Amino acid sequence: MSETLTINTPDGAFSAYVARPKAASAPAIVVIQEIFGVNKVMRDICDGLAAQGFVAICPDLFWRIEPGIDITDQSEAEWKKAFELFNAFDVDAGVTDIAATIAAARKLDGVNGKVGAVGYCLGGLLAFLTATRTDIDAAVSYYGVGIEKHVGEAEKLNHPLLMHIAEKDQFVPPEAQQLILSALKDHPQIEIHIYEGRDHAFAREGGAHYDAADAAKANGRSLTFFQQALA
Asked: Catalytic: which of 60, 137, 169, 211?
């Protein structure tokens, strides 16, 4: 079952896609978009999380630039649009909007008070920053781009963070990965998994670098993580 939620902030209102489980009470997970907006991939992730027993909420984080972005990774024109949005995106404002989404999630009927977050690509960076800057109960980052610029924020981390890193990520070169690992691998709240030979977005079903086996492995780890952290 899905619905649209309107989230109000001092800067304006934006929408979020919500998928609900059959359970009357469940933890919530904020699903943080890639650079393609709240598209079918993100909605399918929400629906999948709902089937696993979570209230899944995917906010439209591009609303300050252009509300309602819903594009794919299947054409050159869409990639061009996606990178234009990425370059225009204000990361700090995005984290503020995620914080507003978390607050709204905690008040939603059927949410038991616990809220996690999972993000992909741009959303992987935002999931990391959500873990360090908000009151989220747990966060998962898939192949986050630009995390190496923010590793110093890990000292503010008070809740568990799971990170999935693609070894051959074209957007996170080896030197960036080394910075991330050196800074974060011994942090007591952080669990990191490296996927050897995988490129960026290996878990995006239908994407050019999708790998079913490693996507299933990462998603299984994420599910176990959330079941424990949001219990």
From this structure: 169
